[in-house]
Amino acid sequence: MIAAVFEGDGKLVLKDRAKPRIAKATDVLLKVQGVGICGTDLHILQVPPAHPATVGATLGHEFSGEVVEAGTAVTEVRPGDRVIVDPHPGCGVCEECRSGHPDRCGPLYASASAPGHCATIGIFSDGAMTSYVVVPAHALYRIDPSVPPHLAALAEPLACVVSAADKLKVQPGENVVVLGGGPIGLLFTLLFKASGAAKVIVSEVSAYRRKAALACGATRAVDPQQEDLAALVGREMPGGANVVVEAVGPLLPLAIELAHSSGRVLQFGHDELARPAIPVAELLRKEITIFGSFIGKFSFHKLPRILASGVLPLEHIVSHQLPLSRVHEGIELLRRGQAIKVVLHPEAF
Ligand SMILES: [Zn+2]
Ligand SMILES: [Zn+2]
Fold first, then answer.
1. How many CA atoms lie less than 13 Å away from 145 in the CB half-sphere?
2. Is residue 328 domain-resident?
């Protein structure tokens, strides 16, 4: 089978790999049915990388699939089931997992001061940019067969967004600014509109993505290089936004600037190279609350219901579906801001 393998120094190479086999009684073999290219994959493929990854691993952590074979101890799913996959399920039994931090599970995590990482499938072990993948059964959530594979592939980023939105608790009538109109920024936009936000302003440099932001329900989609974003927010949302989501990486100072007094700011954009200078006086005078959010923790169980209900118009998020053989083209489209989410289909190779 063909797999997109990370070879270090920004290289992603399509190679022939042997079909994986179930190693443990609790493992499941999946046929991949759609795998998204994530902003994290782009960060991994940056030189120098803005996100770590295991050299030699098949990338692809946002995917859905069909169960082909289940280990002898697996009772939750059976062959033929369609599933979404939590790529960082944790072991469930270590100290970190039991205290609510499955993202800190795994031998690769060193300590709070020496940055490590969880054993994410598709980043630190073989993922789904290929035809078949072996995953632990406890990472799987069964979905309704009516959910199209390309939308099911959004489960992982959406689980991350649902988990983060749970911290912000946007109330009906509140005003929100979203910095960054990529797939994450637009998933937040869909979710906030569904939660009753009065106005959602999306700031995004790509015209392609600004158009998609409006389709997702944004009140305004602004090019911050052409328009004075702070002035616009001041006009549309007197005093500032109740909630500001930073979905780019280095823009936390701007997010603080745009927030209303007692506003909530979420740092979601993940750029390990970003070291922005924080406007301390503004932060304290406005009594801003800042949240960080990392991966989808304890939100995956909601995804089968969200996907089956159709409550979020997720078709606005998937702009391209390509065969795996065109993965590099998908990456280029994303780098140029000419796509929202690109979903790859291995079977079309
Ligand atoms: Zn991702
Ligand atoms: Zn664990």
1. 3
2. yes
The CATH number of whichever domain residue 211 belongs to comes to 3.40.50.720
- pTM of the shown model: 0.93
Domain that holds residue 191: 161-292
| Ligand with an atom nearest the CA of residue 187 | 1
- Look at residue 237 and give its three-state secondary structure: coil
Q: For residue 263, what are the β-bridge partners? A: none
Helices 183-194 and 155-168 meet at what angle, rounded to 10?
50
Give me ligand 1 centre to Cα 40, in Å. Answer: 6
Does residue 116 lie in a domain region?
no
Cα–ligand 2 centroid distance for 98 (angstroms): 7
pLDDT digits (tens, 9 = 90+) for 73-107: 999 999 999 999 999 888 888 888 899 888 888 76
CA dihedral 141, 146, 147, 148 (to 10 degrees): 130
Please give the average per-residue pLDDT across 213-217, as a whole number: 98
Q: CA 32 to CA 83: how far, in whole Å?
A: 10
Report yes or no on 51 lying in a domain. Answer: yes
* Structure-token match 């992982």, residue found: 156
CB 317 within 8 A of CB 154: yes
Report how many domains make up the chain.
2
